Amino acid sequence: MEREIILSEVQYKAVRSSGAGGQNVNKVSSKVVLSFSIEESQGLNDEEKEIIKQKLNSKLTTEFVLILNCDEDRSQLKNKEIVTKRFIDILEKALIKPKPRKKTKVPKSVIEKRLKEKKSNSEIKNNRKKLDF
Question: DSSP of 9-64, one letter per residue?
Fold first, then answer.
């Protein structure tokens, strides 16, 4: 993953924020929408593209375009920084390969301890029974 190339391929669009906010919300386009096409990216190799398509399947459109929004701040510049940071984090997390799980064997001492506990429990319960004379 080549970060500089990817960041140059990202497209930003400023949109009016929705919801409450008084008179300012009707005039200022502070919400930022980031869109990134995975298919057309030069910063990702084919293997990385496939991994991203699988892991981010629910966040992609049918044309494999990732769209992120940010309207947390009143400043368009800050929203752009936030959404860019979020975009990089999402891509990096998607490309992390999980470590393979190593099977571990249960130690003999643990098995013996469990069996001993079971045996003592059964003896306690057997002693509660009424004796037949």
Answer: H-EEEEEPPPS--TTHHHH---EEEEEEESTT-SSS-HHHHHHHHHHTGGGB-TT-
Distance of CA 109 to the CA centre of its chain: 39
Distance CA 51, CA 57 (A): 10
pTM of the model: 0.69
Between CA 118 and CA 116 the distance in angstroms is 5
Structural domains in the chain plus CATH codes: 3-94 (3.30.160.20)
32-62 pLDDT per residue, tens = 999 999 988 888 889 998 999 999 888 888 9
Mean model confidence pLDDT for the chain = 88
Q: What tokens does 75 get?
A: 């400043």
CA gap 109, 111 in Å, rounded: 5
Question: What is the rounded CA–CA span in Å between residue 72 and residue 78?
Answer: 9
